[in-house]
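Hello forum,

I keep getting stuck at the same step: I have a sequence, I want structure tokens, and every attempt I make locally crashes halfway through. Rather than fight my setup again tonight, could one of you with a working pipeline run this one for me? It's a single chain of 429 residues.
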Amino acid sequence: MKSRHRWFVVAIFFFFMLLHQSDKLLIGTLTPNIMETFRISKTQMGAVSTGALIVGALCYPLWGYLYDRYGRARLLALASLIWGATTWLNALAPTFRSFLVTRASTGVDDSSYPGLYSLISDYFSPKVRGKIYGLLELTMPLGFLSGMVLALALRDQIGWRGVFYITGSLGVLLAAVIFFGVREPPRGGSEPELANLEQISTYRFDWRTAKALFGKRSLRLLFIQGFFGVFPWNVIAYWFFTYLETERGYTGNALLVTMAAAVLVLAVGYPVGGAVGDFFFRRTPRGRVIVATVGVLVGAILMWITLGVPVANQGLFLLMLALTALFIPFAAPNVLSTVYDVTLPEVRSTAQAIQSFIESAGAALSPLIAGLIADRFSLHDAILWICVSAWLLCAFFFAFTARVIPHDIATLRGQMRERAEYEQALQAG
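Reply #2:
Ran it on my machine without issues. Output:
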């Protein structure tokens, strides 16, 4: 029953993330229509995305604490309800100022994923989490693709506001599905040392354990690389569609085919990267970090080559874009799995929230910086400079993480063994 239910939960969360990412990322496709409605510049449109990212970043610590302190399933249902409500408010905005404010409010639920990943970690053992997280992170590129298709199909028929009404309504519907359909597993129940115990004591968030997170060298390095790591994703998500339209002259089927092909290959990269990370993790504790390093280095090189392809050669551009898309997601499931490889179950939401807060604090500036560079130079320069420089910095910090990660993983396994002995003593006594 537990095995069947855990896959049911994965399916629910997959669709939650897919639809939520569609709602979050379709604004990139709707950008030209929104800019026309409010008659704004690229810099002002960049500020819209930056506002939502700032609000999301500020909410990460709150969500992390709440998830580790209270029931994660109920809080995820609340997050889905907030998603639906704020998207509706954004669609109703009559002026650019109100649109800016309501779009910023959508960042509240954007920071709700730590509880989802933490809950999943209590259903699956460390050896397979990379695959599961890679599967769930398929929803990011697929959400972008489905959002793009939805926006292209409906923006001229019902307008960008109508598209937001549809996605907001889906958020409300999923809130009910999560509330009634997802069970709360015991924290740490899937750890190898505790998996065979009939009962596990309830472990909750405490400040001393949370503060100890900053004492782990591997986490400090991952936090720092995270500041730079999300810059490229936000630039690509919010500006790449516009770049193809305005600077490479893509229209109609050529635009759709190019984006669809790249996004589908990108989607494959998440579970492949997670599976490769799991494979090497079973052989060395440095395995996941090594895979992440290779992913960002190869991605930086291929992005530089891809954006240098002449505008007239659409076939070569598509080929190189797809090849780039395969490697750049490799780091994502492995970074997430590595964070959980070194943290206690009762502070995993907090650990990921800190990681995501630092990521968002840096990434919040990326759409605005890209807009500024694009207004002064071009979107080509903005995407190239931000992506390549950020990925090279990530590779630098991953290299140092690989040196210290074995110690922090061994420390966690020792703590889990101590808990298992304690639980066994309680049950025997």
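The chain has a mean pLDDT of 87. If your local run keeps crashing, start a new thread with the error log.
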